[in-house]
Amino acid sequence: MGIIDxxxxxxxxxxxxxxxxxxxxxxxxxxxxxxxxxxxxxxxxVAAPLTEQSxxxxxxxxxxxLMAREVFEQGxxxxxxxVEGSPADSVKLAVSELCPQRPDLVVSGINSGLNAGINVLYxxxxxxxxxxAFFGITSIAVSLQYDEAARYDVAAPQAARIIDQLLQHxxxxxxxxxxxxxxxxxxxxxxxxxxxxxxxxxxxxxxxRQDPRGRRYxxxxxxxxxxxxxxxxxxxxxxxxxxxxxxxxxxxxxxxxLEQMQTWHIASPTGTEP
Length: 274
Prior knowledge:
Elements: E1 3-4, E2 7-8, E3 17-21, H1 29-38, E4 43-49, E5 68-72, E6 78-83, H2 87-98, E7 105-112, H3 124-134, E8 138-144, H4 152-167, E9 176-181, E10 192-194, E11 206-210, E12 216-220, H5 234-239, E13 243-248, H6 255-261
Parallel strand pairs: 3-4, 3-7, 4-6, 7-8, 8-9, 10-13
Antiparallel strand pairs: 1-2, 5-6, 9-13, 11-12
């Protein structure tokens, strides 16, 4: 029986079917490394974008046909389904059509670069996990701090250990999580901190340039914000070298303000009272 931090692997307890996706594309090394580790937890179906889709957020394809085909490695090993669309497309199509059975778990990653703070809203990696949560499936986005020599083979076992422990809590069923691993955690022992998402905006600076034909273009140069002082967030935890784990939700309603607004008696544009 396999053991992770003193607890048995889920595959030794019951059969779990995992849908693995990403936004870096089906040939990304982070996807391959995570697939290898997740197979210790259960059966894995891979469905990922054919090409890199970083920063596309939760875009979906609906005005053109959505193409998907199985791709194979040399030797005939099946790599998975390559979807000519977004990360959210990949999950939507896989859950509905491509998986041999409904997944028990959706994992998105390992992304090349952190998806923390306000970047969660732009991330295709997180969007794929959100799409899984739309179906009521436990879903986890996994990201590793960017490094040209990133060691996904080290980060993947760390992610799998955390995923295994999450799933052994019954209350995690159907929930959405965001997991970020800093580079320091690959070299030194790191704690996993359960923290909220920081909402400090990034700098929105642009450098104006000119191409060889004299046309003006802009290059985004905004820098990451400093972690907010006071309570710990994903940004401050990562900067301190900790692994950051954040429970997310896709209900964007501000419920406390909703109750206050319901006392405002906003008049109808036709002039009638509500």
